[in-house]
Design brief:
With 394 residues, the protein is of the alpha/beta class. The protein folds into two domains: 9-181, Rossmann fold (3-Layer(aba) Sandwich); 196-389, Dehydroquinate synthase-like, alpha domain. Helices cover 42% and strands 18% of the residues. It is built from twelve helices and twelve strands. The chain has helices spanning 51-67, 86-98, 113-125, 139-145, 183-200, 202-216, 220-240, 255-264, 272-289, 295-307, 319-327, 355-365; strands spanning 9-13, 20-24, 44-50, 71-77, 106-111, 132-136, 150-155, 158-165, 170-173, 337-344, 347-353, 386-387. A seven-stranded mixed sheet has the order 1-2-9-6-5-3-4, with helices on both faces. Helix 5 packs parallel to helix 9 (272-289) and helix 8 crosses helix 11 (319-327). The longest helix is centred in the middle third of the chain and has 21 residues, at 220-240. Bound molecules: nicotinamide-adenine-dinucleotide (NAD) and zinc ion. Residues 144, 192, 255, 272, 276 line the site of zinc ion (ZN).
Length: 394
């Protein structure tokens, strides 16, 4: 990826007193120390990272922080979801206390979503809250997890069961860091990018259709645009609904089935974005079955997901475990599974779904001979909430 000479982009996240900027600039890591000046008055900075990221980027980060006069303490964790536990939080808090971190000392999350979620949660509880900054290093983290203030860890009985809403002071994105990301992680991140087009912006979706080959080659312009537009959409949704009541739910598109498949694979077979890729297509198919969108929408989404190199098929042969896993999702309200359904590309609706409807769809869509029978046209006069382009809430 050749990115020199590109101007810095800033996406503001407007949340009153908790507002912050997402700054996007190739090569930003070298200047990270200079960018923290306004965010903390203490020289102490804890850099929370994992081994993979530390091997590649810790030295550069330390150099930049020391040059700017800070006293950094690296906290290097094992990579992977298994680190996202309360016991890791305990270990981070031990270091902060031992090193006498104060209320103004800052934590810097240098890593993917796992590191961001852990660091934000540790920052939210140490001395009842110290500042933290996200330096996301995966595509998932740059377009999704670093923005919005959801922090937390897993419990043995459920993913992300423990946590807090806690906003970072800044999100500093260096797209050059994506060059070292394993290919599988890059492609999984594209599922979240495609999601933004479907839930809020047809023009962006059309851009992705055109630019997918370039994105797969990590070409500079398309990569920057994809990250920036994704951050804008996430920032816009989060601004409208910080604590996840209705509007923020649209970010969950593809995740009702996606989370179910992820959990059925024991969080080992499929990585998150891969499960979401399948969810994007299958939830559109289910929306079509419910009469909410046309078959053309499903096929348009399927085609882009496939071209990103993601799977669109559920390999699970039976329905009961999928429904069971869907019901364990945190987003379930009063025992009801509430989904996000496209009515066209760029516009979604939120509605509950009944077991019977889902079961019939599953039976049909897993029996090719009956598949054409569920290709209905979009429903008219739907009395449902719709969320579309540029925050338009119709
Ligand atoms: N808070 C939120 O709103 C939110 C949203 C989405 C996902 N998440 C969480 O994010 C986590 C998933 O995040 P993820 O997909 O970034 O996974 P991750 O943090 O586990 O990173 C994936 C792998 O890539 C490695 N890596 C990271 N950056 C690298 C780089 N630049 N070069 C080489 N290797 C690199 C990591 O060491 C790890 O092995 C999950 O725990 C999920 O729950 C949170
Ligand atoms: Zn996701």
């Amino acid at each position: 990826m050749r990115l020199a000479g590109v101007v810095e982009q800033v996406v503001p996240v407007r949340l009153g007193g908790r507002s912050y900027d997402i700054v996007l600039h190739p090569g930003l890591l070298a200047t990270v120390g200079d960018r923290l000046g306004a965010l903390t008055s203490s020289p102490k900075i804890g850099i929370v990272t994992d081994r993979h990221v530390a091997d590649r980027y810790l030295q550069g980060t330390l150099r930049s922080l020391c040059k700017a006069g800070y006293d950094p303490t690296p906290i290097i964790l094992p990579p992977g979801e298994r680190t996202k536990t309360l016991s890791t939080i305990g270990k981070i808090l031990d270091v902060l206390a031992r090193k006498k971190f104060e209320r103004q000392s800052l934590l810097l999350a240098l890593g993917g979503g796992v590191i961001g979620d852990i660091t934000g949660f540790a920052a939210s509880i140490y001395q009842r809250g110290i500042p933290f900054v996200q330096v996301p290093t995966t595509l998932v983290a740059q377009v999704d997890s670093s923005v919005g203030g959801k922090t937390g860890v897993d419990h043995r009985l459920g993913k992300n069961l423990i946590g807090a809403f806690y906003q970072p002071r800044a999100v500093l994105i260096d797209p050059l860091m994506l060059r070292t990301l394993p290919r599988r992680e890059w492609i999984a991140g594209l599922a979240e990018v495609i999601k933004y087009g479907i839930i809020a912006d047809e023009e962006f979706f059309a851009f992705l259709e055109k630019a997918m080959p370039a994105l797969l080659k990590l070409e500079e312009g398309p990569v920057l645009h994809a990250i920036k537009r994704s951050c804008e959409i996430k920032a816009q949704v989060v601004t409208a609904d910080e604590r996840e009541s209705d509007r923020r739910r649209i970010l969950n598109y593809g995740h009702t089935i996606g989370h179910a498949l992820e959990s059925l694979s024991g969080y080992r077979g499929l990585i998150h974005g891969e499960a979401v890729g399948i969810g994007l297509v299958q939830e559109a198919d289910l929306a079509c079955h419910m009469g909410l969108c046309g078959r053309d929408i499903v096929e348009r989404i399927r085609s882009l997901v496939q071209r990103a190199g993601l799977s669109d098929q559920i390999s699970q042969p039976s329905f009961a475990p999928i429904w069971g896993a869907m019901q364990h999702d945190k987003k379930v309200v009063g025992g009801q599974v509430v989904g996000v359904w496209p009515v066209r590309v760029g516009e979604v609706v939120i509605r509950p779904i009944e077991r019977q409807v889902c079961a019939t769809w599953f039976k049909n869509s897993h029996n090719p001979r009956r598949k054409s029978s569920n290709s209905r046209q979009p429903g008219k006069n739907l009395s449902v909430e719709k969320f579309g382009h540029e925050g338009k809430s119709q």
